[in-house]
Design brief:
144 residues; 2 helices; 38% strand; zinc; metal ion binding; carbon-sulfur lyase activity; CENP-V/GFA domain-containing protein
Length: 144
């Protein structure tokens, strides 16, 4: 992982939902096989919530889906249906950013790791994914 972070911009397909996130140029993205992520083929990296900013009037174009424990808040665009980010069960204090929804040019490397969402509890404990939304475990901030 990089020791510095940069600003990444991104959003949904129709561009009604736009955001910016401060994260490294090299990220670890999680390919989850829970019932929701598997069906959407969502692969995401996790950042502390304070490093994520929803832009403009994006909020009016979002809707949220929950199931099971209702801890995860699966947000998606009301217009195009794309989940460009959501609030994961593993990191309710963080944001899961769909790496394919980051605008081209700022991500230089994406390492894909598997998260066994069908065996959530054991994967959660083994992966140490919970630490990823803690700002103290994140790289230092680079130029803005």
């Amino acid at each position: 992982m990089d020791s510095e972070t940069v600003v990444h911009n991104g959003g949904c397909h129709c561009r009604n939902v736009r955001w910016r996130v401060r994260a490294p140029t090299n990220v670890v993205a999680w390919d989850c096989n829970c019932s929701d992520c598997f069906m959407r083929a969502n692969t995401h990296f996790i950042v502390p919530a304070e490093r994520f900013e929803l832009l403009g009037d994006s909020k009016q174009f979002l809707t949220t889906y929950t199931f099971g424990t209702h801890t995860a808040k699966h947000t998606f665009c009301k217009v195009c249906g794309i989940t460009s980010f959501y609030f994961p069960r593993s990191n309710p204090d963080g944001v899961a950013v769909t790496f394919r929804c980051v605008d081209p040019g700022t991500l230089t490397h994406v390492e894909i790791k598997h998260f066994d969402g069908r065996n959530w509890e054991s994967s959660y404990n083994q992966s140490r994914i919970a630490s990823l939304s803690n700002v103290q475990n994140q790289p230092t901030e680079g130029p803005k």
